[in-house]
Amino acid sequence: MSYQVPVECLNEIFEHLDDKKTLYSCLLVNHFYCKISIRILWRNVWKDIWCNRFKMTYNQFLRMESSILSTLFACLPKESKELLFKKGIFISTPTSKPPMFNYPSFCKVLSIERLF
């Protein structure tokens, strides 16, 4: 007989993980674990990159920031993308497929200082 841990319990456990590597590993377990982990990892995604900026080259840092912006851009409705395009703001998306999650809904902190 297999038992499934209630989502509330898993959420509580994942919230107390201080190790980002463990949360990244949870992304690969199954969709259930992935959904919980992604919500936590994207809560303040800018902070994680900013705190680790000295552990990577400047180009790696820019690529990570660009990747986050591209992912957020991919989540925008078509009308918003068209408006940005008309205003001369071009952000490429990593794929034409819609994102697996609504990543902006997980972001609780938006760092605009790095956007300018």
From TrEMBL:
Pfam families on file: F-box-like
Domain of life: Eukaryota
F-box domain span: 5-45
Protein's name in the database: F-box domain-containing protein
Organism this protein belongs to: Glomus cerebriforme
